[in-house]
Amino acid sequence: MSLSQMSLAELAAKIRAQEISPVELTQDVLARIERFNPELNAFITITADAALAEARSAEAAIAYGNWRGPLHGIPLALKDLIDTAGVRTTAASAVLRDHVPTQDAEIVQRLKAAGAVLLGKQNLHEFAYGGSSMVSFYGPVRNAWNPAHIAGGSSGGSATAVAAGLGYGAIGTDTAGSIREPASLCGIVGLKPTYGRVSARGVVPLSISLDHVGPLARRVEDVAIILQAIAGYDGGDSASVEHAVPDYGAVLREEKSFRIGVPRKYFYEDLDPEVAAAMKQALRVLESLHFTLQEVELNVPTDRTLQSGESYRYHAERVRSSPELYQPETLRRIRSGENVSDADLTARRREQETSRREIAGIFQKVDLLVTPTTPIPAPLVADLETNPDQLRPRELVLLRNTRPFNVWGLPAISLPCGFTQAGLPLGLQIAGPHWEEGRVLRAGFAYEQATAWHKRVALPS
Q1: What is the CATH number of the domain that holds 428?
Q2: Model confidence pLDDT, tens digit, residues 301-360
Q3: By CB atoms within 10 Å of each CB, which of 183, 236, 251, 272 scores lowest?
Q4: Over the stretch 40-90, which tens digit does the pLDDT of each residue have?
Q5: CA torsion sign, 15 to 21 to 23 to 25?
């Protein structure tokens, strides 16, 4: 098996045993980036020299018996709205094209402490305001399974890079589905933790009440490993919550039977036929694992006023002074929140708090919720370029099933559950109660082990 086809967990064990060199691993990944990134456009900034220096440091430390854990010597990358000291953070916008932070984001500090090798900064939908990653100062991101299709967004560069083997994991952000939706479209695993579980300090915001930071990787176990390193209270982040972080690796292998809630109303409506067929089979697999299924009804929040109002507040000064630096479509979306009053924002935040309390009640009846991640497969880039008026409507369809879980602040994961006849990936979404990432990961891991979707690879080794 080639290095690019191995999981993060497999590589971590071999690095610890000194069977694989972090330097050789990093060189291999950088060669793949050089080979495939020109077509996929997954990276904005590649920090090859720094990555090799980190890999050499990791190799020396491990040789002396100073192994820091399963991320030590593992090449990862960051969505380019996460601050990195001395390395530009652009948010895929001309507005920040020369912005070089002086401090690392909290999650970057934690990844460095864990010994991860950071490859660079990944392309995204400008300022994370969209679900296609087609609107970027650096050009559209393309899907590793078929570059004629979108990679999803806004963490599109992160998702397609992981799918292509341009790193063994990535850190993305998720305000309405921006980790899970591209993970689904790119055939990988993406987790949005509970709101407040992972620090967002040092991350360019889209909507502070809805923003989540989380991992993407090829396997559920790999996502759990990354989450272990970045989860936990940060006193410098006002949204961070002090809550015990379990051992996610141990939780993965616990023998448990779950009550699965299937919210057919809303989440299973108007599905592409191939998505519907994949979900029917996925539910059968869950039943075969001795999970019990029952239909549930949810009061689904659909109002987007909070996101648009908070986004405008963040950008207002720059929109007034330098509107020409934004991509026109991003500027239009930001300005949609211009007339949201402070009173409206306060009211919407109260509604959100109420919604988060109310959704907790459903977990008296079931342990988890299962839905399709996206109602449709990845659209064609050319179709959306030819019909730009369809871009936002398509994005809203793609984000329909993920957005409510941001409002609720629940942990939710997407993992592969099938492919279309054209070879495009499809995703299964599993969500659980607040702070129960372990439960979500456990169910996802059980499903993954019972299927073979995760074994398919997008690009040659």
Answers
A1: 3.90.1300.10
A2: 999 999 999 999 999 999 999 999 999 999 999 999 999 999 999 999 999 999 999 999
A3: 236
A4: 999 999 999 999 999 999 999 999 999 999 999 999 999 999 999 999 999
A5: negative
Segments forming the whole domain that contains residue 32: 3-301+358-455
Give the whole-angstrom CA distance, residue 450 versus residue 277. 18
Q: Could you give the number of structural domains in the chain?
A: 1
Residues 6+ apart with CB under 8 A from 353: none
How wide is the angle at C-alpha 258 spanned by C-alphas 257 and 264, nearest 5°?
145
